[in-house]
Amino acid sequence: MTSTPPHQSVRNIGISAHIDAGKTTLSERMLFYTGKIHKMHEVRGHDGSATMDYMELEQEKGITITSAAVTCFWQDTQINLIDTPGHVDFTIEVERALRVLDGAILMIDGVAGVQPQTLTVSRQMQRYGIPRITFLNKLDRLGADPLAIVDSLQAKLGLTPMLLQYPIGAAENFVGVIDLIAMQAHYFAGDAGEQWIQQDIPDDLRAEAEAARDRLLDQLSLFSDLMTEELLDDEWVPPQQIWDTLRQGTLALKFTPVLLGSALKNKGVQPLLDAITRYLPAPRDRGAVMATDVVTHQPISIPPNPDDPVVALAFKLIEDEFGQLTYTRLYAGTLKVGDRLYNSRTQQLTRISRLLRIEVDRRQTVEQAVAGDIIGLIGPDCASGDTLCSPPQKVSLEGMVIPDPVMTLALTPDSHDDIERLEKALHRFVKEDPTLRVATDPESHKLLLSGMGELHLNIYLERIRREYRATVRVGTPAVAYRETITQPATFDYTLEQHAGPTGQYAQVSGHIEPCEGPCQFESRLPQDTLPPPLLAACEAGFQDAVQTGWLKGYPLLGIKVVLEAATQRPTESTPATFRFAAYQGFEQAFASAHPILLEPMMQLEVTTPETYLGTLQSQLMVRRALLLGSEYRDDIAVLQAEVPLAEMFGYSTELRSHSHGMATFSMEFAEYRPLPDTLLSAIP
User: Fold this and answer.
1) Does one domain contain both 103 and 14?
2) pLDDT of residue 447 exceeding 50
């Protein structure tokens, strides 16, 4: 068993970036230099056995599929590190990691710069108020331009970058960095870069380094009156003062420190570890989190106090031969083996049988956990996003933002045994992954599996085959279309039946109108027009209607229902009659509101040798793509486009064929847009 370090000596951090930016490679170096592992492994293309990519599928495909966690120590600081996927299909892994982390490393490819998924993870960090360090990687590559990328951080991401280092050499001649705070040159020697050598700055770079330091201090002086006075008096600003100012500004989300390196070439990782301990927050620095009292529904503040009752968030589940392991962030209290916790969603007590420090795919028992820890629990029956707390308190923490699926596959098991295996697999996977949905087609009775894209669903299909040995036939992918309206329309519906001893009566009127985002309901009834149960029944009836799909059977989006008038009769009006009347009223208005079908549009980035650009542009035009432009980096072209998801099936094969395997692409959901009328008849 291991003990818990002092609270201020803990850093809960994640690494997030666009796919192929080098996150897993960086994680491997961090584990090596902190002594966690004794030999560095690589992702696909090297030796294919990186520590953090422990799943067989991850090692085969050379991508991170599931976020992995590990604990390591740098000097006197415990670092709980989570390596997250870069592919947009697995964005929920990034979302739930950032939900519980205190700080993050935003990693950027030094050649490609800011890419589509960089924008996505940056928005996720902003959503949860995560302080970050930016690490520009791959500076050993031809075309790397760190200074240009620093400028783009503000233009494209809205960040205020603070460049703390200056590169020594470029491309294959990149050999180290200059620390602009201590004004020393850092080199990394040895077979694995383990020898961190600090020397005087080379004479030919001193003037550039001094100019870069002056720019850094000028920027920092905007956040420090003391530093402003020292600069005006032409005094030397000591490193400790710069570190303190950087920490304060980073925690306040005023700027992001920027560091340089090449993880694959073992350069710049040790200074990054120093920066994690200096600039990123300890759990207590993040302050209190807000929760909701599930009894009174009042907001409540939860400070990170180890002596308070336990409040924890279960954010990730893993099931294996040993049972369910629940990744949990402890926000308050001290948790010990044998404690009982209340699940705010299920309203059940659950016993903690084991506490584990998370070590990727290994487990290390701990005696207790305190506020700020990220640990594994054995015992609780819960789902991702559940709040666990010490009785008698009953609170619920804010959950995660879970995007809706955009693609569906129909699954048909080959045999009765396959049905049982498939059901067992899907029950587990849906519990683990909130973006994965399972339903049954009411007509064909086939199982429908919905997810975030082709890769997302294909990974789960492969896991079904490998881990559960179930054989299933897969139908044609179906796109998650949506229905909406283009203009307002009114409704006035009266349900009046005299059958039975009392009869049935309900009258509702109002209008529907387009709105942004999900469907909404608003009551403009004068007070006391309807008692609460009947008003709630009206809302339930409208909710039934927006789930129906009136045009092609797809869920509705962007519709606001406004209830303006209603009448009742004491003996004939029931919740059931008003629910039915509201449903029928919506149907009455929908047909007159000029309904249309919406299709999911994807933001696409294609990176290709310039030779193939024209061919690939032509192929995308055939797929109804809107070309947004291209930029060039040496002989590499980066093409930006928006394209309907329905047109992108099989694109990876076509891209490889037309570029001789030299082009790559990434894609993420952009928004729903109207489907052209000429294509409406082709939609099932």
Assistant:
1) yes
2) yes
